[in-house]
Design brief:
This protein is an all-beta fold. 0% of the residues lie in helices and 52% in strands.
Length: 124
């Protein structure tokens, strides 16, 4: 199983970015949970948002509710993270991760497969 993130970059505060996570070696229709996590320098890894590819249920951290949304395209084995109203506090390396399951959550140790990450930098 391989996960690859894309879409990171530099954006001004208040702007938007859309990240993509594309998986190979799995079939999303079989039921996977895809989560997005982020790691900023000097900070702990933080769970951001996750989705069940089987049911479409989502779960988001309080810090991103109302700003970030997640969606999936099972035909493309791809999950999208739409990030709006970005602020400098959102600056981090963003990782997608996957586990075989149905209930979305942000328990990082339970995720089995991880992508290499993509950098998001929000300037003030």
């Amino acid at each position: 199983v391989q996960l690859v993130e894309s879409g990171g970059g530099l954006v001004q505060a208040g702007g938007s970015l859309r990240l993509e996570c594309t998986a190979s070696g799995v079939t999303f229709d079989d039921g996977y949970v895809i989560g997005w996590f982020r790691k900023a320098p000097g900070k702990e890894r933080e769970g951001v948002i996750s989705i069940s590819t089987g049911y479409g249920d989502t779960y988001a951290a309080d810090s991103v509710k109302g700003r970030f949304t997640i969606s999936n395209d099972n035909a493309r084995n791809t999950v999208y993270l739409q990030m709006n109203s970005l602020n400098p506090g959102d600056t981090a390396t963003y990782f997608c991760a996957a586990l075989h399951g149905l209930a979305p959550h942000l328990g990082a140790p339970l995720y089995k497969w991880w992508g290499p990450g993509t950098q998001v930098t929000v300037s003030s």
